[in-house]
Amino acid sequence: MKNQLTFTDLEYSSRKRTTRREEFLDTMDSIIPWDEFVELIRPYYYKNRTGRPSNDIETMLRMYLLASWFTLSDEGVEDAIYDSYAMRKFMGVDFNEHKVPDATTLCKFRKILTDNKIDKLFADTCNNFLEKYGYMMRGGTIVDATIIHAPSSTKNAENKRDPEMKSTKKGNVCYYGAKMHAGVDAESGMIHTVETTAANVHDSQPALDLLRDDDEVMYGDSAYSGVSKQERAKQDPHFSRIEYRTNSQKPYRKNKWEEGPGTYWHCQMEAQKSRVRYKVEYAFYVIKNIFGFRKTRYRGLNKLDTHLRMLAVSANFYMASRSTLCELPISVEG
Fold first, then answer.
1. How many Å from the N-terminal Cα to the C-terminal Cα in the chain?
2. Which residues, at least 6 apart from 46, have a Cβ–Cβ distance to it below 8 Å?
3. One-character DSSP codes across 24-56
4. Can you spell out the DSSP letters for 224-248?
């Protein structure tokens, strides 16, 4: 993409400070391997031999990510690029030569990603990239799930809710939507596997699908205490050798732990498990608070699964850019 300076760039370069949005976009622009991602999309993208040429793949990918990071609709991200200098700079669009792709074009691009499962290719590329530079280790996985709310209103064209979303109860509160199940590296806290189910699916059911081939330890809260007893875990040679370090019921619940000489030791062991397991919470924090994704935007689990996996890839790059454990090849072009 071209980064030719314009009069607007020269004017904005004289500012006393940059906004947090611009700093965030500059960081993500420098850390994401754009060339590799573009080549993953190219075999499935339009091959127009006649007529109007299709939009640049990298431009469409950047526009799609902007919509995901800032929780914008297709029309909203188009308007935001015209309105925000930081977003226009991230897109690399010169209004004198090009125009911003419209909402319909972005919708078709997102359909290409969903139909061809390109998000899974992105996830594999991201994992290999982070392993190469020492950000993702092997041997242990933390599993957890978080609820993604879905609109419960029936005031729509079909006068009904999304049939693939279900209800669940957590504590004394009922929720309607889906669940994001994540497998997180026990050392770095990076997300390596994502599965999406309806909200009524128990956390432990897809737990084994979140483990890697070389994992030796699995960490989880008390909801995963029965994973080792599943028939699949007993019969599979790999899963049967894994050490399942799951938390017991919380100590403040009455009549769960009897007072005695081993109570203090039991509490300390549970605390050590939680010291490892808490890393998955920060990954969910980035997706729900930094990117603001708390409610589904599209109908159907297939579209939601693609969106969550792309957010997980983005969260990994965001966490890597803020970490000082290793050095990534960050180089921002002028």
1. 12
2. 54
3. HHHHHHHHS-HHHHHHHHGGGS---SSSSPPPP
4. GTTGGGSHHHHHSHHHHH-EEEE--
Q: Beta-carbon neighbour count of residue 303 at 10 Å? A: 18
Q: Tell whether 153 and 107 lie within a shared domain.
A: no
**Residue 330 domain flag:** no
Range of the domain at 109: 7-115
Q: Which of 227, 218, 225 is nearest to 193 (CA)?
A: 218
Q: Is there a single domain that holds both residue 163 and residue 108?
A: no
Run means of pLDDT, 10 residues per run, the chain, 334 residues: 59 73 91 93 85 84 94 92 89 80 92 94 92 84 93 81 89 90 92 94 92 91 88 90 83 55 75 87 93 90 94 94 61 36
Say if residue 317 is in the same domain as residue 231: yes
* pTM flag (> 0.85): yes
Domain check: are 99 and 196 in the same one? no
State how many domains the chain has. 2
